[in-house]
């Protein structure tokens, strides 16, 4: 990271914090390759907490310069006026993604807001905090289309889509994910929003061994598919996504909708559109949702893909 790149990041953060966003937002998205020399950096505003993540190693001198810049930022008027109180530096490229608290008292959990809804994040303990900020528009789309619907949320993680669906008036939501700890956090997220948990089912199972359990709660009016690009032993996007798509027609009600997502940079939107046409020709492509403006990308097809389909 050159001194010029570091100065660019510093200036960007000063502007982003003046004023600070009212809700959780990404402040700097270097991974979109729009700022040369900063491709390995992201910065998230977690409403009082600034989380800086490094996705590639820096030399010792570079790392020290980055830390010095961040501590200098914490003395700026923009920082003081923002209400920020904690500063974290996460090294995502290392095993277990260790996080250093440069400023503030360490806490394990932190509650934030997005689109008026509350979510509980993990700070400093896990690779991911518990909410993928680039899917903000996807959650808003689900909230806007969930009224009265029966919803299936596959690869549910901490149930962000489920929270959005219940907030939008969904009649019932089924969340499935192999990680039971993530689903437990999903329950926490629903409780934070005073949701009726009798309307929500949490299935801690391997999807490919649990189609019968999934079908039992159907058919569904809306299905959300947001899998990891790769998860050792459980999911490989190119191999396993088609297996999910071919099950959709039997799980969907007439005129049901699907939100199919991928964050794999090497796979563009055409892959999902063509795979759907091949595996589930009853479903037709409607639109690709826009990504939030705070996630610019010099190669849009490499960014998050959130595609809407409907059953004819």
UniProtKB/TrEMBL annotation:
Q: What is its EC number?
A: 2.1.1.-
Any one GO MF term held by the record is: methyltransferase activity
Q: Which organism is it from?
A: Pseudomonas spirodelae
Name this protein carries in UniProt: Class I SAM-dependent methyltransferase
Q: Which residues form the S-adenosylmethionine-dependent methyltransferase domain?
A: 25-309
What does the record list as GO biological process?
methylation
> What are the record keywords, sorted?
Methyltransferase, rRNA processing, S-adenosyl-L-methionine, Transferase
Lineage at the top is: Bacteria, Pseudomonadati, Pseudomonadota, Gammaproteobacteria, Pseudomonadales
> Which InterPro entries does this UniProt record tie to the protein?
SAM-dep_methyl-trfase (IPR019614), SAM-dependent_MTases_sf (IPR029063)
């Amino acid at each position: 990271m050159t001194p010029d790149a570091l100065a660019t990041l510093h200036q960007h953060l000063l502007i982003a914090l003046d004023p600070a966003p009212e809700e959780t937002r990404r402040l700097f998205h270097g991974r979109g390759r729009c700022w040369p020399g900063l491709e390995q950096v992201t910065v998230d505003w977690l409403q009082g907490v600034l989380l800086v993540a490094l996705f590639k190693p820096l030399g010792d001198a570079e790392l020290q310069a980055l830390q010095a810049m961040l501590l200098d930022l914490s003395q700026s008027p923009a920082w003081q006026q923002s209400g920020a109180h904690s500063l974290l530096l996460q090294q995502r490229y290392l095993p277990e993604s260790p996080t250093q608290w440069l400023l503030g008292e360490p806490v394990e959990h932190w509650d934030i807001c997005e689109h008026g809804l509350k979510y509980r994040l993990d700070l400093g303990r896990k690779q991911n905090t518990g909410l993928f900020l680039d899917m903000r528009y996807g959650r808003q789309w689900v909230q806007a289309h969930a009224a009265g619907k029966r919803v299936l949320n596959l690869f549910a993680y901490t149930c962000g889509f489920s929270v959005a669906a219940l907030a939008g008036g969904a009649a019932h939501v089924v969340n499935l994910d192999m990680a039971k700890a993530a689903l437990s956090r999903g329950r926490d997220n629903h409780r934070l929003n005073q949701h009726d948990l009798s309307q929500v089912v949490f299935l801690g199972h391997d999807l490919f061994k649990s189609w019968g359990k999934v079908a039992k709660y159907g058919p569904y009016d809306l299905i959300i598919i947001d899998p990891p690009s790769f998860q050792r032993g459980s999911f490989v996007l190119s191999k396993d996504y088609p297996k999910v798509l071919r099950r959709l027609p039997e799980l969907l009600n007439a005129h049901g909708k699907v939100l199919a997502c991928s964050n794999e940079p090497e796979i563009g939107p055409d892959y999902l559109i063509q795979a759907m046409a091949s595996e589930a020709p009853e479903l037709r492509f409607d639109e690709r949702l826009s990504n939030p403006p705070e996630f610019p990308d010099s190669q849009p097809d490499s960014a998050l893909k959130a595609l809407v389909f409907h059953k004819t």
